[in-house]
Amino acid sequence: MNSIAEKYIRMETMPFIFCPGCGHGIVVNSFIRAVDELGLTNNDMALVSGIGCSSWSPVYLKFDALHSLHGRAIAQAEGLKVVNPDKSIVVFTGDGDCAGIGGNHMIHAAKRNIDLTVIMMSNYIYGMTGGQRAPTTPYGATTKTSPLGNEEHPFDMYTLMRGAGATFYARCSVTQPVQLQKAIEAGIKHKGFSFLEVLSPCPTTAGRNIFNFKTPAEMYDWYDSQLCTLKKGETEAPDGKIGLGILYVDDSREELCDVQAEKRKEAAGK
After folding, report:
1. pTM for the full predicted model
2. Which CATH number fits the domain that encloses residue 252?
3. Residues of the chain with pLDDT under 50
């Protein structure tokens, strides 16, 4: 047994409930390696999740965790951070849970620049609930709620989060697990609202309904063909590809909990 797995995984919860080929298990793997590299323990960190396939992730980990309502993970994580400002709070969420049902909480947390690390696993669909169109579903894609093709253009999550005020943004893919691990490390270390968009294939629902892939391997090959790693300072990929990397960092903005602490200190001195 892998020593890192024994250190961080609740072995009594094995095996994973994730479908064969699902990328979410790779996200969990990269996360525990990032945490181990940072030397963080259960006393240093708490996890929050909402509803969806991605939100199973904290169930498997040896950290205190809060499993919230659909779309409410970030809101509850904010409350947890305000009363525990010295803890690292990490949110595991999906594109539907985060950018769809929880979209308002997402943009306001970014605006506040509260010190959270949000790992949004994007699989282009509502996977757990039957394959409905998500905010990230490609234009023209066939889903259970867009049988004639998706007539809505998907969110550009980078532009959305930059506009909302996020001070750290990374786009990663489970097909590049080491790069994902390093981005998680950087996001946790960043003082402010860190948002990681993680492309995580869903062969069972998106693979069959949207892309008509026959096997998980076929879907992973397609993902690799669409991706490229951006150079430092780049935010757009050439030739219509999807760029991976840490796209934006702003260390100059004050973090919400620090501002609140300073205001309380000033008020107490009056």
Report:
1. 0.95
2. 3.40.50.970
3. none
